[in-house]
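Progress against Task 2.4 (sequence-to-structure conversion) is shown through the following example record, which the project officer requested during the mid-term review.
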Amino acid sequence: MLYDGENYCFSKTYHLHIVDRVGGGDSFGGGLIYSLINGKATQDAIEFAVAASALKHTIEGDYNRIGVAEVEKLAGGDGSGRVQR
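Structure tokens generated for the chain above:
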């Protein structure tokens, strides 16, 4: 959920196999900052941040090795919730 001072925006829910929880919060924060700096609307920003966090949970380690295109694919509703490499 993201509140922009006027509206509450909620992201979709992802059901995925969690491999490693470490770094999920950092990935969310980084995704939110990235999307807002790049001018995304509030709803699009929360979708991007949650998708980045969800994808991070599918890989091991504390570093999010996921690219913007992969996050945007999942946030846009096209994707399995797994990193495609």
